[in-house]
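Repro:
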Amino acid sequence: MTVNRRFLLWRRPQGEPVPEDFELVTEPLPELAEGQFLIRNHYASLDPAMRGWMDDADSYMPPIPLGAPVRASTIGVVEASRAEGFAPGQWVMGLNGIEDYSVGTVGGFTQPIDPGLVPSVTNYLSLFGAVGMTAYFGLFEVCEPKPGDTVLVSGAAGAVGSIVGQLAKIHGCKTIGIAGGAEKCKRLTERYGFDVAIDYRGKDEAALTAEIAAAAPNGVDVIFENVGGIILDAGLANLAMNARVGLCGLISEYNSEEPVGARNLWRLIVKRASIRGLLVADYVARFGEGAAKMGEWAAQGRINIDEHVDEGIENAYSAFMRLFSGSNQGKMILKI
């Protein structure tokens, strides 16, 4: 008998999630109603934003209900269908749960994909998924870089940050990346083409501010922010006139019971700079445009993408926590 393993949110994490916040259960397969289809999930995208969905707090998406599977972008194959347009054997991508099987509905978030168009079907969770589109539209639509600008990227070795740096270089910008550890900083310059890599580990805000100033003596024109905390404050201390700050994430704050927040916002006034939040959901209707450009640059060898795949739904917790320890080496994906 086929069963459905499901990785459930059992209680709200207080600070950093612990294994007891989750439960792996086995349940019967769900029955399909008219207009529904059953998806056998193969891969799930693990992203820092999922930590925010676990809190009972107002956000751009409702909290994950307790006792429900942890929400994630997934790719899989239609196993059975009572829905027009979704045939058994068809590959699909959608926003489902970390579970063996999910039920999709016509008109929902799940869409067909063609694995023959990409080197690996997992690329739909990285370069051609929300990660790549966040980098593309976040940089070009929100941050609006101009050739010759200096672009500072925090979390630069991460899934989004590594692509942002490469796109900025394609656009003719100077790029400075901030990452944790010598190995990741080496990857920034040697694999992703950053002009300068700054290792934040073991440094306070003053030291980071000084390193950014040394790399950008005329200030930074664009900050693509993924981390927050003292890294954001160090970047704000180095703004150029009329700089743009794109706020993509604040991973340093997600597990903090008392978030630090930005303390150098006054520099926005001094430099007549702007700060703007960005959310990839605003650009869904234009994903085709972004994917076409990304595909073109990837085919030319101008973009490198790394994926870190951990296997087994039983390892969902440890794989997810790699995002916060920094032990992943590329876009974090779980092979269910």
